[in-house]
Amino acid sequence: MEKPQASHPKSPNELTAVVITVSDSAARGARTDESGPRVAGILEEKGFTVISRSTVRDDVSDIEQALRTAAPSARLVVTTGGTGLGPRDVTPEATRAACDRLVDGLAERIRAAGSAQTPFAVLSRGVCGTLGSTLIVNLPGSPRGAGESLATIVDVLPHALDLLAGKTQHKETTA
Amino acid sequence: MEKPQASHPKSPNELTAVVITVSDSAARGARTDESGPRVAGILEEKGFTVISRSTVRDDVSDIEQALRTAAPSARLVVTTGGTGLGPRDVTPEATRAACDRLVDGLAERIRAAGSAQTPFAVLSRGVCGTLGSTLIVNLPGSPRGAGESLATIVDVLPHALDLLAGKTQHKETTA
Amino acid sequence: MEKPQASHPKSPNELTAVVITVSDSAARGARTDESGPRVAGILEEKGFTVISRSTVRDDVSDIEQALRTAAPSARLVVTTGGTGLGPRDVTPEATRAACDRLVDGLAERIRAAGSAQTPFAVLSRGVCGTLGSTLIVNLPGSPRGAGESLATIVDVLPHALDLLAGKTQHKETTA
Fold first, then answer.
1. C49 pairs with which residues across the strands?
2. Please, which residues have CB within 8 angstroms of residue A49's CB and are 6 or more apart in sequence?
3. C-beta atoms of B123 and C105 within 8 A
């Protein structure tokens, strides 16, 4: 049980990702989703293979279900949208419900870096956590906010995914 | 359901606030409450109308009840006191119990700014969150700590309350 | 009830601590534990009496039980290990289960300071909290990470323990 393998049969060594846009208006087709493509573009520049993108409305059950469906197929699931204070913003609640462990430091880092850009970054409620051997990351919904937030943490993600998959010989010396 | 109105019939467009001092000794009249008036003063300088101030003892049920009673009457509820490590300090626990969503970034910001003043700021356990369309903010109990903490975040509060009331045309581009 | 005494009959005024190393390999004797002794050494330099050190495997129930057993005997319980993203890293989950109150600011401070050393500090999921009148602190598992993290917060711990024991005349002016 010490070094279980990642449960992603199709890509044990590949950096696979799913991008989920959380937005009522994008989900019903009333708005073009710019944030999802931008997030996917950054991930691919960094060596990830984005195996799917999807859109879900701002509903806590729908979001949780989308996360649970995506996790077994990819090592990383990134959401954009639904992290603010709007009455329909419930992505963090859905993410907490889906995750078995939280990674508070990633969310803290996103907000601390964002605060250098705008004082309103403190209002972003995104959380990060793990579901099985998949990492889930919430990003803000604006294209710029999503891009800047992802850029802040993207370089630690490959190492995070290695740790999560039990793929380090020095696990116990790094955390 | 996309843009629900705030549930504060008397003041849909006004910046209304309630200030609650959490303190055993202030609640029984054994100590003059300096922090509540200071918090109220700062809010009024920033354009808020403080519709009431009250005092409650350091009891988790009493505090939660005070928050639930105050929320429908104001867009912002600010507490001062009970956020430390003392055996009776349970304001954060009562606030978590009352809130339906947490806004971790506001509490992180208060502590990060406080750490520039004193290393003991890390011991302040205050949380922030939403209850319906009302924002709840925990501040420390000392007049100086409460004032400095509020000053750190007060300028983002009007925008936060607009988002919370669904009053932005650009909700999806900011979070 | 305003100023209850600490429940540590043998050492009401002494800075007592227990150090727990969380590691499968150290628990079964396959690896020499360097982090536990390093943590204990730092605490003793700062005036703490380390009344015991122990090792527990990366099992959430075992860790929670170890925390509950240790708390009544010391004012401070420090763990090292099990805070990362490895499949067996569950020290934060056990700590949350054991604690009756969280002290988020200490964990935030450890990560913020660690981020100046390595970008991977954001992946440390350690939490801090209180169990009765005992403070529990999670540190990373590497000797260096544990030592640096503890050094970041060790100077506020005596004051934290005084507050926790109700031993300050000015409790209400500091938090």
1. C16
2. A11, A14, A15, A16, A17
3. yes
- The answer to the question of residue C2 being in a domain is no
Neighbours of B170 (CB within 10 A): 9
Q: How far is C170 from chain B (nearest CA, A)?
A: 9
Is A104 within 8 Å of C123 when comparing Cβ atoms? no
The DSSP symbol for B34 reads -
Does a structural domain hold residue A96? yes
- Please tell me the total count of domains within chain B: 1
Task: Establish how many alpha carbons lie within 13 A of residue C89's alpha carbon, considering only the half-sphere containing its beta carbon.
Answer: 33
How far is CA C144 from each of CA B15, C80, C84, C159, rounded to the nearest angstrom?
50, 11, 15, 25
> Which residue is associated with the tokens 């279900």?
A65
- In this complex, the chains that touch A, judged by 3 or more CB pairs closer than 8 A, are B, C
Q: Is residue C171, in this structure, part of any structural domain at all? A: no
Q: What is the mean pLDDT of chain A?
A: 91
Closest CA in chain C for residue A113: C112
Cβ-defined contact of B111 to C106 (cutoff 8 Å): no
The pLDDT assigned to A167 comes to: 86
Whose CA is closest to A79, among A56, A60, A102, A97?
A56
Q: How confident is the model at residue A174 (pLDDT cuts 50, 70, 90)?
A: very low
Q: Is residue C101 part of a domain?
A: yes
CATH number of the domain encompassing residue A83: 3.40.980.10
pTM for the full predicted model: 0.92
Residues B88-139: pLDDT tens digits? 999 999 999 999 999 999 999 999 999 999 999 999 999 999 999 999 999 9
Domain hosting residue B135, numbered range: 16-164
Which of C87, C41, C75, C79 lies closest to C63 in space, CA to CA?
Answer: C79
